[in-house]
Amino acid sequence: MSETAALAASSARSLGLAACPACGRIEPLSREDAPCGRCGNPLHSRKPESVSRTWALLTAACVLFIPANLLPIMETGSLFGSQQDTIISGVIYLWTSGSWPLAALVFFASIVVPLAKLAILGFLLVSVHYRMRRWRGIRTRLYRFVEFVGRWSMLDIFVVTVLAALVRLQSLATIKAGPGALAFGAVVVLTMLASMAFDPRLIWDGPEERNG
Amino acid sequence: MNARSNLSICHDCDLLQREPAEPSGAVVKCVRCGAVLYRCNPGNRERTLALTLAAAVLFLIANAFPIVGIETQGQHNASTLLGAVLTLWRDHDGLVALLVLVTTVLAPATEIAMMIAVLAARRPSIRLLRWLPAIRPWAMIEVFVLGLLVSIQKLSHLAILIPGVALWSFIGLMLLLAAKSATFNARDVWQSVSLSEPRRT
Question: Domain total for chain A?
């Protein structure tokens, strides 16, 4: 990228400029919340209250992560009695029934992704708090990974929805969503909101700049 | 326009940088953190509009017909997406039903409708353009399609499954939405807005 020249590696904020988050227009930032001259979107040099908002959403997600994994997300009733499935037992069922690529997929979407989101966002918040200067590129890439991959955890909610709708065979079997499904859905939504609230530009702020 | 028109600010690391006069690839990335700043391929509005209209038709078909039918021991059942949401609702899982409704019906429908309004208008509405990126993360058709395939695999041991019209429509819808995102260039549309519109003060 030789033809793209950085202007003395200066952040837009240190030059008193801000880009509109909606339309990308660059404007001098006279005050926080000033409307963009093209689209009227409020301009900020950093997302307002980014760190405390992200902490709040992340904490709520961490608390709900426990019932999401311990409570059954699916309840199957049949002639032979009833069975309750948590997320992990669902993955184990897929594994033992021979479809291991699918088991790996569900394991990744429902267990690895939520855990990774919680761990990465927690690490980013701590690193911003201590104004860590190392691995800025890697931390930004971790953030982009969280943003990109977050939606895929909804997979299990959709699976339960489809199974519950189809398996309504009066005498033979009935599937219902369990209480874990609500907790799990809440974890997905809360972690998505947390990653939206986090401002990756804080990773690049120098020690002289205050965190927003 | 003004002296700032050939500058970009990275949304991920806040670096102010000059835009390359002749970009070497399909996208221009931030020189410091590698975030994609913008796409260089000129957006093709007619093509994007055609893809979005096709997506709208498939969206209607996908919601009107049963996705899969299940048959075992003489019993038959089939469900549409809205039927599945309604089942959750009746089982007293109202919030889960709402989450599914928003991510698979309301958000995709809103996104498709807004895209058509933006692309078909001679002067796209600024308000719609502004809200478009906020809707997009909540439209999860591609995740739902994967969920459908996992459910089918789970049930295939236990019963005979009959794929419905809506299953193929959802797969087609997923592909059309991806193609639409690939040809849509928001930066181009924004630039056309600022050329046609006097500066607001």
Answer: 2
User: Chain B window 37-76: which residues touch A at a Cβ cutoff of 8 Å?
Assistant: 38, 67-68, 70, 72-73, 75
Task: Tell me how many domains chain B contains.
Answer: 2
Q: Please state whether beta strands A6-11 and B15-18 pair in parallel, antiparallel, or not at all (unpaired).
A: antiparallel
B146 touches chain A (CB under 8 A): yes
CA distance A71 to chain B (A): 15
Does A3 have pLDDT greater than 50?
A: no
B114 with B184, same domain: the answer is yes
Same domain flag for A23 and A93: no
In chain A, % helix, strand, coil (3-state, to 5) comes to 55, 15, 30
pTM metric for this prediction: 0.90
Point out the residue among B15, B16, B143 whose CB comes nearest to the CB of A151. B143
Which residue has 């000129």 as its token pair? B42
Q: Using an 8 Å Cβ cutoff, are B76 and B69 in contact?
A: yes
**Average pLDDT of the residues in A26-33:** 85
Q: How confident is the model at residue B141 (pLDDT cuts 50, 70, 90)?
A: very high
Task: Give the domain extent around A17.
Answer: 11-45
A4–B200 C-beta distance less than 8 A: no
Chain A nearest-CA residue for B194 = A38
Give this complex's ipTM: 0.89
